[in-house]
Amino acid sequence: MYRERKLQRHDPSTSSETNESEVASSSDTLSSSQNGLKTKTHFPFCLLPVDCQLYIFSFLSEVEKCTAALVCSNWSKLMRTPRLWRVADFMRLGAFISGMDGVLASFREFERWKEWVHQYAYHLASRGASLLVLRASFDLGDQRTKWADFLLQFLDRVHCGELRELELNWTLTHLEPLDLYPPESMAQICMAKTDQFNSFQTLFKQLTRTSPKLSRMKLPFDWSEHSVSLLTHFQHLSTLELNYFWVFKGVQPETMQKLTRSLPKLKTLILQILVPVKDLGVSYPLESKSLEFLDVSQSRGLVFNHLDLPSLKELRVKKTIRGIILNRRTRVALQTRWTCLYDLLKSGTPKLQVFNSHRLLPCWPTQSYLELSEVLLQSCYCIQHTDTWLL
After folding, report:
1. Mean pLDDT for the chain?
2. 285, 256 contact by CB (below 8 A)
3. Which end of the chain is more exposed for a tag (fewer CB within 10 A), N or C?
4. Assigned CATH for 45-84
């Protein structure tokens, strides 16, 4: 009896059956666990709160959002949520050859681009876009394409109450054939410039009502009293870049001073001012309690007579020789009226740390040194730092 039990215990067939049974059982367990794992890894996106779904969709590009809208009716409805459409960028697409200011194209390509612009505007308006960013480059004085009317209508059809960033070149259409319009006389050019800034002021006035929370702005500026008054309505501005409007358009010193005084949150200011020859000798005051970064390196003929910038940390300024030939007596009489930039910085910018990419030494307000003197030679118009018969 004991021997039989021992033989049964070591019977290979019995052992094989037992092993197969155990393996089968183990396999079933593993299969069921894998199925369970698959079930657990399935993410129930549709069960998320709507706000979470919208947050996830906000990372998609505009094309990807349009593609996602084709997945199902629920996603199609979500893709029409206004806060998913935050950017209106009319300066993209259609670029063939990049120029200095715009993009060169054939007349046919220009017509195709115009069609895209209107379709893009309709696409955003139909979704009730709630914009944070608006970028556009249209000649608002163009009476044929009527870009001014187009922009006004577009702003009426979308939500701009949360608009934070505006980049608007209202003097040039982003994509336009060079031979679209024949050359004009000076009188016609002056009339066109008048049409441009009149349309700009109308558009700008509307933005003061619809987009008071703008914090970043880049645009050409005509520096008229009315435009400056409108600009001071944007009390949340922290970054402002103003480019020149027309080479013959001057800037009044009092106007510049009024603007910088009236923007309490301004941190960054970039000015491109071309002082006309007729205003040679005019100098400008600049005052701001909040300004930390000032860049006037793209300006021409801009000379300061007073600086009150107690928070300024970085300054960029470049002296431009315009080739104006004066006799020595006239030049000296003119330059002696200009205050040395170094004296202005010592009294008006106590926290200045960087001057034209040069990090200042701690002793700079009390003692000049070689590197600082070299920077001043490149930036100051006073008679001490400009020893030339050209201005």
Report:
1. 83
2. yes
3. N
4. 1.20.1280
